[in-house]
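Incident log, support desk, overnight shift.

02:14 A customer reports that sequence design results differ from what the structure should imply. Their input is reproduced verbatim below. On-call engineer (initials T.W.) acknowledged and began investigating.
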């Protein structure tokens, strides 16, 4: 009986929903990225030395989590509706020197 209770408890803990609203978190990460580009005056600082890679990873983790829920989630809809990939591409191109 103790093993069964322990198994059920462990299963319920691993299947808990995140405590933070995913869309709010996703938008917060995106706004932090865009604010960096709006506010920064140090163009010589490589992006890898900022928190942008970490924020992008957090956004990716949220999208993967939503995908595992088998539904198109609000974060994916936000990404598509607000053209985040297009914006990231534009920002990336601006950081690469012309050849």
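02:41 Re-run completed on a clean worker. Output:
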């Amino acid at each position: 009986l103790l093993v069964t209770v322990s198994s059920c408890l462990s299963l319920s803990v691993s299947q808990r929903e995140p405590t933070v609203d995913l869309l709010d978190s996703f938008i917060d990460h995106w706004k932090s990225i865009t604010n960096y580009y709006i506010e920064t005056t140090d163009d010589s600082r490589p992006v890898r030395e900022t928190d942008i890679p970490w924020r992008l990873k957090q956004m990716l983790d949220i999208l993967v989590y939503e995908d595992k829920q088998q539904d198109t989630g609000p974060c994916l809809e936000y990404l598509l509706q607000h053209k985040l990939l297009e914006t990231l591409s534009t920002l990336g191109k601006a950081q690469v020197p012309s050849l």
